[in-house]
Design brief:
alpha+beta, two-stranded antiparallel ribbon
């Protein structure tokens, strides 16, 4: 079976994006679902445009930069927010933030834009993913920083 260059790039992209856009640790252990075809044939996958992935990287970086993790003294002040969109639906990640120091409206506008862009990308690229339901992780605070640990097996 011959593998196209686009399919090889798509297969490597999640690892590259995981390293490139992580301003905070991933909480669910899954790399971004913005690349790859997850089992679809390479011939059926749409070509992946570098500008599409660059846009997703930029949008995620901007959203993560808005999420301030410092400034909360109790876990009750910390929140989690959904990041991106998995091909099968639902967020691909969650990030923790301190509600007292984060402009939540700006954060959610940025996250909504990222989710819409990732949904479009997933449709165009033919990406697939597992379809399990993922619960948002419970936020905690340690050393004045909000964190969250996913309960995903």
């Amino acid at each position: 079976m011959t593998t196209s260059r686009s399919a090889l790039i798509a297969a490597a992209l999640p690892l590259v994006l995981s390293a490139a856009v992580s301003c905070s640790p991933r909480t669910n252990g899954e790399p971004p679902a913005v690349g790859g075809t997850g089992g679809a044939s390479a011939a059926a996958a749409a070509p992946i445009a570098g500008s599409d992935t660059a846009r997703l990287e930029r949008l995620e970086g901007e959203a993560r930069a808005l999420a301030k993790v410092e400034g909360c003294g109790a876990a009750a002040q910390c929140r989690t927010a959904p990041v991106g969109s998995r091909p099968c639906g639902g967020p691909r990640d969650y990030l923790a933030y301190c509600a007292a120091t984060t402009d939540s409206a700006a954060l959610f506008r940025a996250l909504d834009e990222l989710a819409r862009a990732e949904q479009e990308y997933n449709r165009a690229s033919g990406a697939v993913s597992t379809c399990e339901f993922r619960m948002p992780p419970a936020p905690t605070v340690a050393g004045g920083r909000c964190t969250a640990t996913a309960g995903v097996p």
